[in-house]
Amino acid sequence: MTRVLVVDDEPQIVRALVINLKARRYEVDAAPDGTTALELAAARHPDVVVLDLGLPDMDGVEVIKGLRGWTRVPILVLSARHSSDEKVEALDAGADDYVTKPFGMDELLARLRAAVRRAEPAGPGEDDLTTVETAGFTVDLAAKKVNRGGKDVRLTPTEWHLLEVLVRNTGRLVGQKQLLQEVWGPSYGTETNYLRVYMAQLRRKLESDPSHPRHFITEPGMGYRFEK
């Protein structure tokens, strides 16, 4: 069974999460503060952590940093904070996804399942991802080619690098700062206009309807997600 660690100081939210998770056959531990959360994580080794940022003893970002010091367990942030800066800070610290309160339980559970799937060990032949297929185009990572409708799509080196980072993180939110630093270099981190320009170009070349993208999804103020 998948073990979930819920970290939140609001009893009603914890109760709702515990009931819903247990009903879906998850094992659940709960912590009301950051200190207890770090202790439980070390003792119980959860498969995924659902973490509120507004904790009574420390900021949730500090909990993320504490966990990332020794584990790659998926961390799903659940918070009432709406500002882009705070969301980006949590993602840069090592969170895998972000859900804003108030939240829909179905969406939260879907995000949680996706986080757990991405963390599962790769099966035979999955370690070296080489080809990703969507309904409209195919990305060959080994050959560094994209084929759409039987024809190769010409991408600039920067477009390719951006596409590659997103495809290798399929289904996962990739923060703006991470994208900028991986594609343009470590001295970049705030030039979000670069991302808007190049994402528009990728959509124009690969999406069937660039104004309503199906594969290159924007999470406003946070980053981008590639979906097959």
UniProtKB/TrEMBL annotation:
<dbReference type="Pfam" id="PF00486">
    <property type="entry name" value="Trans_reg_C"/>
</dbReference>
<feature type="domain" description="Response regulatory">
    <location>
        <begin position="3"/>
        <end position="116"/>
    </location>
</feature>
<keyword id="KW-0238">DNA-binding</keyword>
<dbReference type="Pfam" id="PF00072">
    <property type="entry name" value="Response_reg"/>
</dbReference>
<dbReference type="InterPro" id="IPR001789">
    <property type="entry name" value="Sig_transdc_resp-reg_receiver"/>
</dbReference>
<feature type="modified residue" description="4-aspartylphosphate">
    <location>
        <position position="52"/>
    </location>
</feature>
<protein>
    <submittedName>
        <fullName>KDP operon transcriptional regulatory protein KdpE</fullName>
    </submittedName>
</protein>
<keyword id="KW-0597">Phosphoprotein</keyword>
<feature type="domain" description="OmpR/PhoB-type">
    <location>
        <begin position="129"/>
        <end position="228"/>
    </location>
</feature>
<feature type="DNA-binding region" description="OmpR/PhoB-type">
    <location>
        <begin position="129"/>
        <end position="228"/>
    </location>
</feature>
<dbReference type="InterPro" id="IPR001867">
    <property type="entry name" value="OmpR/PhoB-type_DNA-bd"/>
</dbReference>
<dbReference type="InterPro" id="IPR036388">
    <property type="entry name" value="WH-like_DNA-bd_sf"/>
</dbReference>
<dbReference type="InterPro" id="IPR011006">
    <property type="entry name" value="CheY-like_superfamily"/>
</dbReference>
<dbReference type="InterPro" id="IPR039420">
    <property type="entry name" value="WalR-like"/>
</dbReference>
